[in-house]
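Lecture notes, unit on protein representations.

Consider one protein chain, 556 amino acids long.
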Amino acid sequence: MPESKSKFLIPAVGTAIVVAGGIAAYMYFKGGPSGDMSSALGAAKVVPDEAILATYISTDPKVWAKLQQFGTPEAQKIVGQGLENLNKSLSTDNNISYEKDLKPWVGGVMIAMLPPNPVKPAAQNAPQASQEPKVLMVVGIKDKLSALNFANKLKAQKDVKVQESDYKGEKIIETTGKSEPSYTAVLNNTHIVIAPSKQAVEHAIDTYKGEPSFASKEGANSMLTSGVNVDNTLAQIYVPNYGNMVQQLIAANPRSTPIPPETLKQLKQMKSMVAAVGIDNAGVRMKAVAKLDPQLVTYQYQNSSAKVVSQFPADTIALLSGNGITNWWSGLVAQSKDAPELKLTVEQARSQLKLVNIDLDKEIFGWMDGEFGFAAIPSNQGVLAQVGFGGALVFHTSDRKTAESTLDKLDNLVKAQSVNVAKRNIGGKEVTEWLIPQQGALLAHGWLDNGSVFVTIGGPIAETLADRKGQSLDGSDSFKTVTNSLQRPNGGYFYLDMDKTLPLLNRLATAQQQPMTPETSAIMNSIRGLGITATSPDKTTTQVDMLLALKPKTGN
């Protein structure tokens, strides 16, 4: 959303409330939406049903206060400065404060995206401007007396011009200031609708008068009432028709090419989606639930036992794990039959490997039928000295014979390029290395057990995996803190240890002569790690669970 459109809230809200001058009794002013997630349904009842998505943001101070339990003193100071800058930006003469003037009465905010107006055919050879979706904001009023006091204060500001018009018995206020005009209306003295487009406000009034609303849209009502279960919800987003949303956004741009039928079919795999962000004792948590069309889904997440995690060391920087690459590839191939561009990519990959006598389907993806893990592991030795880490891949397979045959073919290919390929014993395991003069092994591979093959970038990483003496990743405090509260069973993990990642980022930034700013460093130092997992309880549902684990507040 353009910056000019994102700044219309303050003058528009205030001038809209001014028209509620007929409201007299103090007790009448009390009440209204509370600002927590229970008010989302009420806000959705004035959003037109053509809205392609809606986001509801809680203004409950108790929820946002949960963030204060996290962060270093430096990070807390940065957040505080950000709030102070926000206060200063609310008014041209700096006499408006969110804490004093807005917080007492704003009862939750819903931001909806409406389809753009249809693009009219342009004259021949004339460029067409893209049509942005229309934005509609619905602001709940939880204390009408405080809202009226704010409106009176705002009315006295300089450079604010107000013009009223009537639409179906409701007043629409056009507010003109230093930015683009905005339009507002007060509905039933409980909600204010605001938009940079007058037509969007008119549609909201139509909805208020009885036209179908977003709340009555198929699938949306259950989303709004049940939502997603996270503690201390900050915001939720609702997309009742995912395929339609993508179509609308693409159609809004006249320069975009039409969506091929096969691509549209892929998009329609996801029917709807609802997601939520909240705060709990571990940090910021996000959960999303997508409803799928079982007739179109080509791949379903398989639950993983997560045994592969135990084969990586405790100091692992990052990990991506899962299960069933073979099935994923089969699903991709099936999908490519109806997608010419994807089919071409698949065929090109197959052809390239055929040139070196390797069957991509059977000899690469065919044996990857178990768990897998891709990891970054710290090391400052050999070829890894400059970057500070190496890569490790572990695959569980039920077809060791084919896996060994593939690795032998790869060894022979690099031998033909005059690369020295040698074997050595590490921790009782035979490991094959591709050696570079004076730098050691560039790549190594071997077997951790009868069904677990590993490939590493850098010889030192092979030593770490094959002869691991310390604690495994699944037993480390960091991994348990970041992942233990994620949904189980699941299809695998994405895991990032920020304490181990930050030094590498600093090294990279210094090498590029773009050192990290103190503010960025302070925020990142407040993050312990990131954990994400996904699962499919059935073929109609995919769930994603994410935790941004934060460090507890320290100092004053």
